[in-house]
Amino acid sequence: VSCDPPHHHSPVMAVAARTPRTRLQPRASPRRTHVRGRCTPPSSPAPGGSAPTPGSSRLVDPSSPEESADEAAAAICRFVTNNGKSKSMLQVDLYVPPIFRSDLDDWPGGIRQQFQVAAPMVERMLVEVRRVANGELDGRLTPEVIDNADAVGLWSSPKLLCVLHPTAETLNTIIERSQEPSCQVVVLVNPQWTTRESQVISDFGIGPWRQRAEDFLSQFTTAFSQMERRVSGVTARVVRSYPERYVLIHEDAEIASFEDEPTLAEIKSALAESGVGDEAGGLFERLKGQFMFNANSLK
Fold first, then answer.
1. Model-level pTM greater than 0.85?
2. Backbone phi and psi for residue 213, each to the nearest 5 degrees, phi listed first
3. How many beta carbons lie within 10 A of that of residue 119, not counting itself?
4. What's the rounded Cα separation, in Å, for the pair 41 and 54?
5. Among 138, 168, 226, 239, which residue is least crowded by beta carbons within 10 Å?
6. Beta-sheet strands, E only, within 24-151
7. Highest mean pLDDT among 21-30, 195-204, 237-246
8. Residues linked to residue 246 through DSSP beta bridges, in sequence order
9. pLDDT tens-digit series, residues 234-244
10. Which residues touch 208 (CB under 8 Å, ≥6 apart)?
11. What's the DSSP call for residue 162?
12. How many angstroms separate the Cα of 200 from the Cα of each of 22, 197, 206, 209?
């Protein structure tokens, strides 16, 4: 799929500031394969898709908002193509660079600042998806804000629905809009709900309300995901671009690949097994290193 940069963006919507909520939590118990080397496309098939043919897709670790938006668009297009005439229900997790970072907080202005950076990325992604679709997703694309307090943006056309920062409170609206007969592609970008199984009461409530939400979300496949994780004293990234596996990357090296989104514990374990991070050398080695550092500091 070609991903030439789009040549225009629609205006960014203004929203009120609010502290962001917790990101969607990873699923548990993925099967992983440990690798050590430069980041290259794994050959294993992803759940719900067939094994990619050589050159059919590539696994990259985008280094700019523009590259992230273009790669997300390419992954969406690959899924839609493979999905045929069926409605495509997709999730995208964009890494939003903290360009407003302060000494105390990555996002001192909360969700409003995140929206200012993420909205142009989403617009670029949608323009590229529609370009590659070559008329299949034509129709006026209208932006709107469906929850000003939580900075929930929505872009819609007769065939396409995309929501940035969807929340549990806006899910009913999203479900209703997605059920329009003409809607062919639904994309949720950076959801703001929490789905930890340990929660007594989920963001979606209890009983039939929670069941309805979970039934709807169970239809979604992650097309693209790029997340930064601070684990064991190092910063690592977890990247997935459909139909490839999730890949753990540290300093541009591929550490391990996972069939499902890895938990923090699994990321920590993979880093340790690869000799990366605080856990790699064990407690004795960490204490020894601290002792040597202190001794050298006194010289």
1. no
2. -65, -45
3. 25
4. 9
5. 138
6. 32-38, 88-93, 142-147
7. 237-246
8. 258
9. 899 999 999 99
10. none
11. E
12. 16, 8, 9, 14
